Amino acid sequence: MIELDAQQQAARTTFEKLRDRICAEYEAIEGEAGSDARFVYTPWDRPDETGAPGGGGVQGLIKGKVFEKAGVNVSTVAGQFSEEFSKTIHGAENDPRFFATGISLVAHMANPHVPAVHMNLRFLNTTKRWFGGGADLNPPIPYKEDTEFFHAEMFKACDAHEPGDYEKFSKWADDYFWIPHRNVARGVGGIFFDHLEIEDDESFNTHLAFVDHVGDAFLKAFPALVRKRMHSEFTAEEEQQQLEWRGRYAEFNLVYDRGTLFGLKTGGNIDAILMSLPPRAIWT
Hints:
A hairpin with a 6-residue loop joins β4 (97-109) and β5 (116-125). This protein is an alpha+beta fold. The protein is 42% helix and 27% strand.
């Protein structure tokens, strides 16, 4: 066990409650499709650099009729960055100690007309404290109206809170979720933000409310799109398109994704870190 202060516990509780709501919604969708698929939860512990308790997390994984593979993970960890890695982390340049709690999810869908999705929300502490994260839509077969609906919900979350800046965060997502070696976007965007810094309890509560609203926006947008498209008929050619697109997704996550690198550099659970990889993909 690692001891948490009031802010750290509040962030952790928020992420765990959001996890429970998302997982319940996914299971409800599986039930509507005639499937009894349920999440399998696997706890994991992380020793710190001295062998003492360094926190851990719970990996949640579901494989069903609608969700070919979806993971919803929560983690709360503490320790020290390596000297080299600490130079790349906000506020850790001169002190490698850190704390991090967050939720990370990816859903790869059985039907290529249903978009895949990613969301990550986190609270990090070094010599500074801040929130970061985002959510983005990744359809193998894009629909303009689905993209607009998803972005509209993210706009509402940003517009309702002082730290929210949809134009800035949307562009940040477009820039971040880009595959340079392919010269293509990973998906159709969403929002991405980082370094929403905490100065006192008031700014903490303000930023936590925004992050929680992003989770609410995700729950309003993504399940609605799943229900809209999950019964669509699809061809072998469309499935081929989906599998090729998944190959691009895997390339981004293994080469560029900062969350993957953070997990690997801080001794996280390998299965939970690589949960984001699709169950099937092809390269032509």
